[in-house]
Amino acid sequence: MPEFILTVTREGKRLFVQATGLMKGEIFASEQHRFFSKMVNAEFVFHSDDHGDVTGLTVLQNGEHKAKKIE
Asked: What pTM does this model have?
């Protein structure tokens, strides 16, 4: 869905996600590139290139939803 944007921000050592029209929530590491939410039943798997730069993520919630980094 092109109108749906998932914004990921860092505040100090904490990581947050906010989906279009929803509240911002903290996510927590379960593995090096895998995070989970305590607010909703969802996992976030970050993908990176050979240089370690994040290129996108996969949201695991009611299926698998891939997203590319836009900024």
From this structure: 0.86
**What rounded mean pLDDT belongs to the chain?**
93
Tokens read off for 24: 């911002």
Contact 15, 24 (CB under 8 A): no
Distance CA(10)–CA(28), nearest Å, equals 12
Q: How far apart, in whole angstroms, are the C-alpha atoms of residue 45 and residue 42?
A: 10
- Fill in the DSSP letter of residue 62: S
Residue 1 confidence (pLDDT):
57
Q: How far apart are CA 3 and CA 13, in angstroms?
A: 29
35, exposed or middle or buried, with CB in 10 Å at 0-12, 13-18, 19+?
buried
